[in-house]
């Protein structure tokens, strides 16, 4: 780990089902949210009450610490330092690390899982192109309050994306998704104006991967999380899929068949990701299509299928199929 003191810019929203699935305690959870608020470009509001699950908002500092602690307890040894290079000896890999204390360290490994985020140096060192990404600009606004995870749509502040207000421990994390970095501050300010909030001037820009069905394995190196662009299109949810992809990658290594990782990932998630990508391309085009999406999601049957798909990650194919049936007719 290069810098465990750095806090990843993130809304920290994770479906409660993920905590059950991975046996993670609630110790890093700072808020439990039971509803979503969608606001269309024209201002139409759509409240979605969650049933069968909640959105847990975590402190990323505490949550990331908790995951590192769980890994240590399971036998992992944490090295504080930066991955610099990788050399394939034919038999194993030699990984060059610059440790936090300034010294160099070499680690030999039969397999490597590159899970070093959107700007993955492991990807780069393996000769793969960087993942595609969209920009975000966000800030913790201490005097903001909200009792739902809010998603606001409009081309004026979130071109082909959305702006959000997520309740946090102290205030809210407020942000906006963007296609162009040059408009970041301007779009963010536009959203603050719409939502009636004031910046403290402590905003941060960061990238979020744009999913594409790309390389998951090269040689004996497997990629997981943002380094593999495992972020759900449209919702931009990445934490669950990072944990899940690391789990599937390690399962494949333990089974002695690294290509199993690709098979498991595709079987479990590819159709969902592809479908969400189609929805994103269709509904995030402009104000008219965003307006339509918010209005479709007011339909109780569609809401139910959508929430099941989002909150119940282990839900069977039927939830996906009913969702595809409902939405499919709007896509053609
Ligand atoms: C503004 C914003 C809001 C978001 N909100 C949400 C949300 O509410 N819910 C959600 O599910 N997802 C959200 N996401 C997405 C989510 O943050 C990511 O998908 C998720 O953190 C990816 O996890 P990861 O472990 O793959 O990468 P990261 O969380 O980026 O972790 C990568 C780790 O690798 C380390 N590292 C990097 N390079 C090196 C190196 N060379 N050597 C050693 N270590 C290195 C980093 O220090 C870091 O600890 C959001 C993203 C953004 C930008």
Structure description:
The chain is globular, with a radius of gyration of 20 Å. The protein contains 9 helices and 16 strands. Helix 5 packs antiparallel against helix 6 (259-283) and helix 8 packs across helix 9 (317-331). It has helices at 16-22, 60-73, 121-125, 184-195, 239-254, 259-283, 287-296, 300-311, 317-331, and strands at 13-15, 29-33, 35-39, 45-49, 55-58, 81-88, 93-99, 104-109, 112-114, 133-141, 149-152, 163-167, 172-178, 204-209, 217-218, 221-223. The strands form 4 sheets. Strands 4-3-11-12-13-10-14 form a 7-stranded mixed beta sheet, covered by helices on one side. It folds into 2 domains: 13-65 and 133-209, 2-Layer Sandwich (D-Amino Acid Oxidase, Chain A, domain 2); 211-331, no CATH class. It has 332 residues and is of the alpha+beta class. The longest helix has 25 residues, at 259-283. The structure holds flavin-adenine dinucleotide (FAD). Flavin-adenine dinucleotide binds at residues 1-3, 6, 8-14, 82-83, 115-117, 121, 136, 138, 175, 206, 208, 225-227, 231, 236-240, 242.
- How big a fraction of the residues is strand? 15-25%
DSSP E strands, number = 16
**Which word captures the global form?**
globular
Find the structural class using helix and strand composition.
alpha+beta
| Biggest beta sheet attributes | 7 strands, mixed
Total helical elements: 9
What is the end-to-end distance?
Answer: 46 Å
Name the assembly state.
single chain
H and E string: EHEEEEHEEEEHEEEEHEEEHHHHH
What ranges have pLDDT less than 50 throughout 5 or more consecutive residues? none
Q: Would you tell me the overall average pLDDT? A: 93
What is the helical fraction, as a range of percent?
25-40%
Strand order of the largest sheet: 4-3-11-12-13-10-14
Instruction: Please give the CATH class of the largest domain.
Output: Alpha Beta
Tell me what the CATH architecture of the largest domain is.
2-Layer Sandwich
The number of domains is 2
Determine the CATH topology of the largest domain: D-Amino Acid Oxidase, Chain A, domain 2
Bound molecules: flavin-adenine dinucleotide
CA radius of gyration is: 20 Å
